[in-house]
């Protein structure tokens, strides 16, 4: 559970810092299929819905423009608040909580790598 909260906190800080970088538009259309994470299957439908929302957000970062950066940051913050609720919900099922924490770590790294490009 600590891993999930720390991951969420780290991702929240990264997106809320407001740092704007110049990006090259030449590589924005390419997608690396190997880096795309597959959404794991969770027992709880709310957890599954949130995981799919994070996967969709990651895909949106592939086509991020400076104009869309604020919108994506806001979406990320909304999902982060929902994920803290889900973390509490998963406290009764350690296996699902660990799977969710691992997924959040993976998707966080993926989104972070897309922000750098």
UniProtKB/TrEMBL annotation:
Region (Disordered): 19-46, 61-95
UniProt feature, compositional bias: Polar residues: 25-40, 74-91
Descriptive protein name: Lipoprotein
Lineage: Bacteria, Fusobacteriati, Fusobacteriota, Fusobacteriia, Fusobacteriales
């Amino acid at each position: 559970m600590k891993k999930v909260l720390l991951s969420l906190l780290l991702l929240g800080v990264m997106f809320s810092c407001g740092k704007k970088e110049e990006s090259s538009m030449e590589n924005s259309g390419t997608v690396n299929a190997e880096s795309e994470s597959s959404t794991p299957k969770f027992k709880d439908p709310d957890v599954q819905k949130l995981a799919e929302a994070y996967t969709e957000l990651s895909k949106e970062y592939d086509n991020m423009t400076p104009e869309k950066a604020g919108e994506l940051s806001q979406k990320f913050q909304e999902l982060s608040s929902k994920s803290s609720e889900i973390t509490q919900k998963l406290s009764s099922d350690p296996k699902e909580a660990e799977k969710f924490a691992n997924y959040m770590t993976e998707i966080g790294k993926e989104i972070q790598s897309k922000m750098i490009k």
